[in-house]
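Thread: Modeling a multi-component assembly for a lab meeting

Hi all, long-time lurker, first post. My supervisor asked me to bring a structural picture of a complex we are working on to next week's group meeting, and I have zero experience with this. I have the sequence lines for every component (605 residues in total). Could someone generate the structure of the whole assembly? Inputs are pasted exactly as I received them:
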Amino acid sequence: MMNKKDGETGNAPIVGRRIFMKRIWKILGLVAVAEFLFFIISLLRPSREINKSRSVLTLRDIGNVEDFPAGSVTPDRINRLYIIREQDGGFLALSITCPHLGCSVLWDEARQQFDCPCHSSAFDRHGVVLSSPAPRPLDYFPVIIEEGKVRVDISQGTRRRRFEPNQVTYAV
Amino acid sequence: MHQQTGTEKQKKSPFGFILHLHPRRVKESTLRLSLTFGLGGMAALLFIIQVVTGLLLKFHYEPSPENAYNSILNLQQSLIFGKLLRNIHHWSAIAMVWIVFLHMLRVIFTSAYGKPRHLSWIFGLALLMLVVLSNFTGYLLPWDQLSYWAVTVATSLLSYIPLAGEAVREALLGGKEVGQPTLTNFFNLHTGVIPLLMIVLMGYHFWRIRRAGGVIVAERDRESPMVDTRPHLVNREFVVAVVLLAAIFLTASLLDAPLRERANPSFSPNPAKAPWYFMGLQELLIHFHPLFAVFIIPVTVLAAAVWLPYIKRDDMNQGIWFLSEKGIRSAKISLAAGLLFTIIFVGLSELLPDPGMLLPSVTPLLTTGLVPFIIVAGTIWLFMRYIAGHFSLNRSETIQSLIIILVASYAVLTVTGIFFRGEGMNLVWPWMA
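Re: Modeling a multi-component assembly
Sure thing. I ran the full set together rather than chain by chain. Output:
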């Protein structure tokens, strides 16, 4: 009751001292809540930041160029990717992870396609969707060929809509 | 006189605190088992079982991808009653999802969510979600093929939520895929954050029930006499608790909690399924565009659930399961229709060609999203109109019938997902798989 009287004199509502102080408290309270939330969110971050600092080591040696015959598809289980060697000698590195629900796809040599065991999505040798429910092609990684070695930067999985020739790397 | 003896007994009892959670006297009509089936009490007891067995398991579990699996093997093989301990924790967890869900259905059917119990209802919904989340975070801990891929699939569902989905998924996983940060997150959520939250919410949930004057009382039982909580209510609760404990112990000594091979990120088992309580969602994802399956439909249902206590009506059937004979008949027909429609829907979508593949030029948001959604929602709406008119149902009975249809459909989807999906998630008979 007292507060209301303080705040209103006559018809024009005037923000009195007490109401003003109460508002300040409310604002401070909101600031405190925001700070607390920020604190919690930043606590949840470090595990990801630590992962990033490790990314210096994400350029992995997969093997020598001559290990991959033309037209072959070679799984690399440790780095969770497939190395595709084109007939013309180009290299394409595809993620093993199905873009639908994250299962690992398997290469079917006889049918020349990748099959997802979870929801029967299928992809051709360039990772392009042959049958749904996969919403997009398999992600690809940049391949670097140095001193006859095939290296893949596994931190750089890239989403794409279609297969394009510039996703293939050639030994110079 | 009566009151004094009750208080005296309470003071002497070593369980004084637990008795203190009860009112001293309760209405005789609320003791009827068919009013509540003791489901809320069962859920509370299961929570205590989970805390006790969980704390014991924690002495032997090591939350790292290298050692988690071995620590479970070690627990089961070289620790006396280690396997039994894990079995009890496993089966109680499953029982808890069931009991909490049935408890929710009971509250819906006896309309025990209306004011002044609306906050009990909303906190109950939050508790239901925490129970599921607790189950889900615990699912990963054994780090076997089952848990690794179930969590991979279920968290991938999150990435279909528009805008925030990918960020939420990465925050939960602590990275782009399931790994050490995921295990750290899940272990902490499972053994710390979620149980503590649940204790707080449970306290509030119980207090709101006390404040509303105890368990819901039917209009016709308003004049029911009061009886002493001890022995009348406490003895009944004791019987329910002992039966539940016996059932859990029996199951745990006969059936082992599953443990497959150690998690292998390179090989997905075929089929790879989410935990069983998410199989309805995964099944929905087979039939609907992801935006509808994991976002629009679940959010709509959740919003409707929160809104439920605030729907205006003057004929709440509080405290009784069915208002009238026609209500029972309409409930039965709704149940049958819900089951039948969904079975036909699942069968048809297997036989008919994929509309997304048939019309590749039209956006899948229409062909596999909006159009099937409108067909399903329209069918339900037409059916509701028919049945409400035919039985001249009142508002409460209409809502009850609609909820029965939705629950029946979800049950069919869940059962289909768990038992009728084989390799490549194709439909199979369970005995042929």
